[in-house]
Structures are given as C-alpha cells and as structure tokens.
Amino acid sequence: MKKQAVRLGAVFVLLFGMALASGADIGFSVRNGPNGNFMGHLGLYLDGFPIDFRSQVVIGSPGGLYLSGEVVYPLPFFLLVRPYLAGGLAVGITGYTAQNELRLRFGERFYAIFSVGIQLPDRGYRPYLEVSQVIGSESFQRFTVGFIVEGF
Question: Alpha-carbon Rg of the chain, whole angstroms?
Fold first, then answer.
C-alpha cells in the first residue's frame, strides 16, 4: 500500500507541475564518480516568489534515470547574474530486461540533491550554470549547463 501511495504521489506531483509550469528546463551535464559520464535532463520550471520549483527527468545517472523535484531559492541580490541555491529529492528509475520484456523499477534508489548556480539575463530563455552534489546510494557531483525556455 505504501509503495502505491508513493507512486501515485509522484504521478500527481508530475501532472500538477505540468499544469502550473512557466517553462521547460533543458540541460546537459558532466558527472564524476563511478563510471564518469555525460547526463542530460528535461524538466519543468515554475517561477514563484520568493522561491521557484523545478522537476527533472535526468538521463545518464549511475542507475539509469532519476526523477527529481527541487526547491530553488534565488538570492535576494541581482547584479547581471542571478545566483541561487537549490535542494530536493530524487527517486531512481532502473530498467532491466526479462525474457521478451523490458521492466522498470521505480523507487529502488533515492537521492538528496544540493545545488548552487547562477542564472544569466533573460533573453526569452534563461541560461544557467550549476554545480550539484547528489547524495545517495551512488554519490556524485554534477556540473550542468542548461536553459529555461519561458512561456509554454
């Protein structure tokens, strides 16, 4: 019962976020740690005041994929760049094969994410640079270049 509630909650958060999203979050990352690799993500970004919210599906994590939700706090000063702090949780999605089928395991791995970054001036899209520490069953650092596409 508890697993079903967690799964239903994750689907609800994802659908609720899509309804309120103020932009798409797209980025590319390099991570260190076990089997250093490139990563990519696609997500939703919600501008709020004084905090923002984002959710991402990240491809290329040590276990395959993870779905994250983060709270983003832009610091109260702005001088050509907008610095921010972010923190959140992520749940792993692992794919494996069985005879004649592909199965996904949801919730096998959990991560805590802490990030610091800067957002550059808005040009219809908002580029950003970020450094993240991901703590979980496989801890690693992630260096991201991305942008938020406004207004969809």
Answer: 16
